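User: Can you predict the 3D structure for this chain?
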Amino acid sequence: MTGTIAEQIYDHLVGQIIKGAIQPGERVEEQAVATQFGVSRTPVRDALRQLAGTGLVEFRPNRGVTVVDLKFDELMEMFEALGELESLCAKMAAQRMTQLERRALENLQSEAAIVVKAEDEARYFDLNNQIHQAIYSGAHNQSIAAVTENFRQRLMPFRSSAGIVTHRMRDSHEEHEKLVSAIVPGDAARAHEAMRSHVARSSLTVLNVLKDRETREKSSA
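Assistant: Here is the predicted structure, written as structure tokens:
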């Protein structure tokens, strides 16, 4: 690992939250993290302050630091915003990607096909993120890419807790195929629509899973 201790702790916590190991509403225990890394609480506090800046966690009175647990309506709004941002990135990527970037995107999609056949959900999760990152980068607008990545990162814990990869791996791959086949030849309009449809389907699956879970929890309370 590289970087300062605080940066290493930050990277570790982001990974844990995004993978669902620390779920929405769960508390991040400052002392437990310090013990895990064998450090004082100071770098942990620095990492948590940095993490709060991403919107993934929040400081609550008498509860310490908890992973953000958004209300259902807030989640709907954020997924809607993410859909618009990612669609814009796809459109711009179709117009601006270099040939090398287009080839790299095709390679990621080809590797994903192998992973889907092997039913390797963990690897597909990583490749899915790499494909989206490649599209953000390919838009060649750092401001739009940064805002889009922030939204995606904030929503990732909810996607993970809903088991989105388990529910949608094959469908996601097929949707990526339509997306990549539009971006590579430079069809901006088709790329925009393919990404809009992809994010909408993914978001709907997450929201339905979370809504069903909420209903079951209320009925068993």
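The longest strand covers residues 57-60. The two ends are 44 Å apart (CA to CA).
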